[in-house]
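Worked Example 4.2. Consider the chain below.
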Amino acid sequence: MPARQEGTSRIPRNLEVPEDCRAISEVLSRVGDKWTVLVVSALGEGPKRFNELRRALGSISQRMLTLTLRGLERDGLVTRTAFPTVPPRVEYELTKLGRSLLEPVSGLGLWARKNRAAIQDARRKFDAMPASNVR
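Applying the procedure from the previous section yields the following structure tokens:
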């Protein structure tokens, strides 16, 4: 077996199993999506109507919000409740499973805010490197 480079670690045993990789990839494609993180964070404050969410998120399109909410509902992270009023009123709310996502999402958001400047600095340095130094 070849020696590992200094500072590298072995792949966790569960990632060596193709089914585990697929499961992790599938879940992360949902919860790692930019809009999912923002919608879950917004719903962490409590139930919201569609337009409340849209205003809270600013630049999301109606179509993208609809698709994101549908995906979250399908995955059991959000419930959609329609009230029999005129005009119809629909609210979205995190399920118990969705609320369990708040802590990791909040942690990721905190990490992103804390490290944004360092990442931007690293990007500037990388982009300033001569093309011959970039693999």
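The chain has a mean pLDDT of 86. Helices lie at 18-31, 34-43, 50-57, 62-74, 96-100, 102-128. Compare this with Example 4.1 before moving on.
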